[in-house]
Task: inverse folding
């Protein structure tokens, strides 16, 4: 158990800058989920912390000890890989015991630790099996067990659930969270799945092209996305964006599509993007006119995909409770108190000035 | 796994039986010939039925040889020792060089690999004179060591192991690094066990290769005590009219047995390896 501090971390492969500037601090026992589209540098960040890659600049400090120059085995970390990376020729027991044997622990101590971890993960009956005799979920547990037995200061998870089927993923997600809380080990968890990110993390780090786009709690990220990238990344279906212009001294947005949206508070700026989630658009007699492209019934709710009529033509998704009869056009009202305003040029969030 | 083709089995069986006959017939002919009178063989009067009463030719060549050669058991032993040394040596060297090429980053790594690769195109015969000179310089002419040492460098095996090692997932290497395994420990605990099936398969091929060596043993030794079984068979065939053909054929049959035994024994081992591995 320990804190993790990352200061000014950069990584380039040749001329390609993968991580541009990362500064982070994790408190003891915290779980930080690193999320982003593929190629955003999230796996590289994890591998730098693990010591599998050397940073171009910056420091990594685990539990107050600068480990930047250390080998992976000296950093007191454990990593769970996407494809589990179990040693195929070793039994479950040996897979978990291997690292302990190298560290020179006594036979009895190894057996005690492995059995303890196996009991925690429900692997007691599988210790003699080889990885190929296990199901995906069981292999995942063994990979977790291999991490647990080492009593590391830091857990690193590299998309550990993406090889599992949907149902097992939900189950393992909950198990990982429970286990991490119970052991109280500081953790970094990399994923591209926003549901995993929202449910697992104490905090989220959203990476965009090697830079942190936002570092905050999941609800904060959802309710106050820092820029249009984060806003579009978190939430499903994705947020709608409408171009407009701040008018009436910054208290309203005149959408290019027509309607004027009154905002709460005063904002500074000119050309803006108005972001609104599909569930905050409601069918109404007047408002935004949409030409409907597709209606997707999901049971308890229905998604209506359409385009704004007129020149601007932004694509819009509306989430409506219950069933919807087929229609050609739909007029929706924007719930203005749920609107997010972003600078059209920089994409940064604009909050009311007072 | 049965194919769903609606084709009767007997066609497949017929083809297989024909194949077996094609390969087994010469061996049978040699075995039948070994039990027959040398004069009859000279006349081309070779019966396909072995004369079982004449099986005594086997103990005779095993213990005494023929036409003044070493006893066959000794030549078999020399061949066996040489083949095992060549196969083991080749595997040892090529595993280490492939391991270096695949898992380490050092300057001219690719150059080193390509240099090894290029030697694939040079047959042994091309470099046999310089090899002989080097061995002579080391004073290894007419020694058992001289029989196998020059043959243990192998570009083919290096290439094969490089492919095998490249197929080992990066995550496995990284997991071992996090577990604290150093390079030699990783080689011993992970790489070698994971490639066990390939090592067994290659051992079989290399053993047979070593067993069949002719040109190099012929050059490097003039001492009859170092004659391999292949050299021995050639020596037995003296002037045609005087050749003890039944003894030659018996020796040929005996020379077949060790490679067959190795194939059969190792096959069980590497099939087990193939079905157990995850790859």
Result:
């Amino acid at each position: 158990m320990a804190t993790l501090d990352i200061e000014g971390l950069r990584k380039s492969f040749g001329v390609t800058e993968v991580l541009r500037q990362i500064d982070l601090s994790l408190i003891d026992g915290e779980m930080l989920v690193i999320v982003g589209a593929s190629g955003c540098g999230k796996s590289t960040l994890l591998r730098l912390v693990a010591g599998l890659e050397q940073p171009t600049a910056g420091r990594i400090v685990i539990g107050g000890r600068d480990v930047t120059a250390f080998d992976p085995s000296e950093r007191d970390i454990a990593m769970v890989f996407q494809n589990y990376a179990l040693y195929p020729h070793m039994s479950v027991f040996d897979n978990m015991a291997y690292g302990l044997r190298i560290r020179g622990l006594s036979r009895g101590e190894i057996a005690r630790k492995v059995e303890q971890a196996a009991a925690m993960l429900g692997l007691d009956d599988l210790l003699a099996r080889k990885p190929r005799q296990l199901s995906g979920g069981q292999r995942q547990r063994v990979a977790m067990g291999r991490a647990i037995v080492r009593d590391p200061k830091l857990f690193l998870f590299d998309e550990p659930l993406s090889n599992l089927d949907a149902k097992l993923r939900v189950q393992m997600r909950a198990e990982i969270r429970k286990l991490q809380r119970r052991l109280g080990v500081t953790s970094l968890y990399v994923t591209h799945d926003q549901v995993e990110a929202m449910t697992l993390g104490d905090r989220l780090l959203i990476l965009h092209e090697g830079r942190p786009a936002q570092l905050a709690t999941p609800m904060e990220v959802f309710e106050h996305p820092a820029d249009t990238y984060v806003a579009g990344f978190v939430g499903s279906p994705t947020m709608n964006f409408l171009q407009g212009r701040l008018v009436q001294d910054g208290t309203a947005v005149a959408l290019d599509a027509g309607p004027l949206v009154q905002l709460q508070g005063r904002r500074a700026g000119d050309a803006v993007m108005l972001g609104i989630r599909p569930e905050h658009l409601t069918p109404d007699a007047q408002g935004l006119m949409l030409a409907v492209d597709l209606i997707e019934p999901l049971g308890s709710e229905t998604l209506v995909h359409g385009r704004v009529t007129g020149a601007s033509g932004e694509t819009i998704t509306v989430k409506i409770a219950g069933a919807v009869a087929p229609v050609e056009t739909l007029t929706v009202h924007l719930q203005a108190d749920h609107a997010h305003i972003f600078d059209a040029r920089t994409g940064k969030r604009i909050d009311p000035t007072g | 796994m049965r194919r769903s083709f609606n084709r009767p089995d007997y066609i497949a069986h017929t083809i297989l039986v024909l194949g077996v006959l094609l390969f087994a017939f010469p061996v049978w002919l040699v075995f039948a010939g070994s039990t027959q009178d040398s004069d009859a063989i000279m006349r081309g009067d070779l019966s396909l039925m072995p004369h079982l009463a004449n099986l005594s030719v086997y103990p005779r060549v095993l213990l005494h040889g023929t036409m003044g050669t070493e006893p066959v058991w000794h030549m078999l032993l020399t061949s066996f020792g040489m083949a095992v040394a060549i196969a083991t040596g080749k595997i040892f060297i090529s595993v280490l060089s492939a391991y270096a090429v695949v898992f380490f980053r050092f300057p001219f790594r690719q150059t080193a690999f390509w240099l090894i690769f290029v030697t694939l195109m040079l047959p042994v015969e091309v470099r046999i004179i310089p090899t002989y000179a080097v061995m002579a310089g080391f004073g290894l002419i007419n020694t058992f060591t001289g029989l196998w040492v020059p043959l243990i460098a192998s570009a083919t095996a290096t290439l094969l192991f490089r492919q095998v090692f490249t197929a080992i997932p990066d995550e496995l290497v990284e997991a071992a690094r996090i577990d604290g395994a150093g390079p030699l420990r990783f080689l011993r605990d992970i790489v070698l066990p994971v490639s066990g099936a390939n090592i067994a398969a290659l051992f079989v091929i290399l053993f047979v290769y070593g067993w069949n060596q002719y040109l190099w043993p012929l050059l490097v030794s003039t001492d009859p005590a170092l004659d391999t079984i292949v050299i021995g068979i050639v020596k037995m065939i003296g002037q045609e009219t005087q050749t003890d053909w039944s003894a030659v054929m018996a020796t040929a049959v005996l020379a077949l047995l060790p490679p067959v035994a190795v194939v059969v024994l190792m096959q069980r081992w590497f099939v087990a390896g193939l079905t157990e591995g995850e790859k």
User: Anything to note?
Assistant: Chain B touches chain A through 21 residues (CB under 8 Å). The mean pLDDT of chain B is 85.
